[in-house]
Write a structure and sequence with these properties.
The termini are far apart. The radius of gyration is 18 Å and the shape is elongated. It has 202 residues and is an all-alpha fold. Helix 4 packs parallel to helix 6 and helix 8 packs parallel to helix 10.
C-alpha cells in the first residue's frame, strides 16, 4: 500500500489514476478488508491516499452501511476540496448500486444534514441529475430537492445548486423557470444562486 500511495502522491491533477488503483484494490479484497484499508488511509496526511479511501468506501457502501456512515460523518469534514469531489462521486456510485429511486430516502436525509459538504455530495454527485435513472423521468423531483439549498449559508453549496439546476434547464427549461419564479431574489444568497442557474441561459 505504501508504494501505491507514493505513486499516487506524485500526480497532483485529476482523479482517474486514483480511481484505477481503487478499482484494482476493490477487485482483490473482501469488503471487510476494504473497510480496514480505507480506515487507515483516511488518517493519511497525503490527500491522494484519502481520495483512494473515499473511492473504496463508495464501492462498498451499498453492501456495508458503516461505509456510508463514514462518508457522511468523517469524510465530509475533510478540508481538502479534492476529497470532497470524490465524496460526491462515491455517493453517486452508492445510488447507482442500489438504484436512484430506492436511494431517495437517503438522498433526502443527506440533504437535511447541517453539514454543507454532506448536502453538496448530493447536489454535486448526482449531476447531471436528469441523466440518472428515476430523475430522468421525474425532473421535477430533482429540481425540488436541489432547490431547497438555494439560500444556504455555504457559497460552495449554493454554487453547486446553481450549476445543477442550470444542467437540468438545458432539457427542462420551463420546469426550472417555473421554480425560479418562486424565488425571493431580494435575498442576496438566493440571488447569488439564481445567477449561477441563469448565467448561460440569459
Amino acid at each position: 500500500m505504501k508504494e501505491i500511495i507514493e505513486r499516487l502522491s506524485r500526480i497532483e491533477h485529476g482523479f482517474q489514476h486514483v480511481e484505477i488503483e481503487a478499482k484494482n484494490i476493490f477487485r482483490s479484497k473482501t469488503t471487510n478488508e476494504i473497510l480496514i484499508i480505507a480506515d487507515k488511509l483516511l488518517d493519511n496526511e497525503i490527500y491522494q491516499a484519502r481520495m483512494l479511501a473515499v473511492f473504496l468506501l463508495g464501492y462498498v457502501a451499498s453492501k456495508e452501511s458503516s461505509a456510508l456512515i463514514t462518508l457522511r460523518t468523517r469524510v465530509s469534514k475533510d478540508l481538502n476540496w479534492r476529497v470532497q469531489e470524490i465524496l460526491a462521486k462515491s455517493f453517486d456510485n452508492f445510488c447507482h448500486d442500489i438504484g436512484y429511486e430506492k436511494a431517495l430516502p437517503i438522498i433526502k436525509d443527506w440533504l437535511n444534514d447541517p453539514q454543507p459538504n454532506v448536502c453538496r455530495a448530493i447536489t454535486e454527485g448526482l449531476r447531471i441529475w436528469t441523466n440518472r435513472p428515476y430523475f430522468k423521468t421525474n425532473p421535477q423531483v430533482a429540481i425540488q430537492l436541489i432547490s431547497q439549498h438555494k439560500a444556504s449559508d455555504s457559497e460552495y453549496l449554493r454554487k453547486s445548486v446553481g450549476n445543477s439546476l442550470r444542467d437540468i434547464s438545458k432539457k427542462h427549461k420551463e420546469l426550472v423557470e417555473k421554480e425560479l419564479l418562486t424565488w425571493d431574489l431580494s435575498d442576496k444568497k438566493i440571488s447569488f444562486t439564481y445567477k449561477y442557474v441563469t448565467k448561460i441561459n440569459h
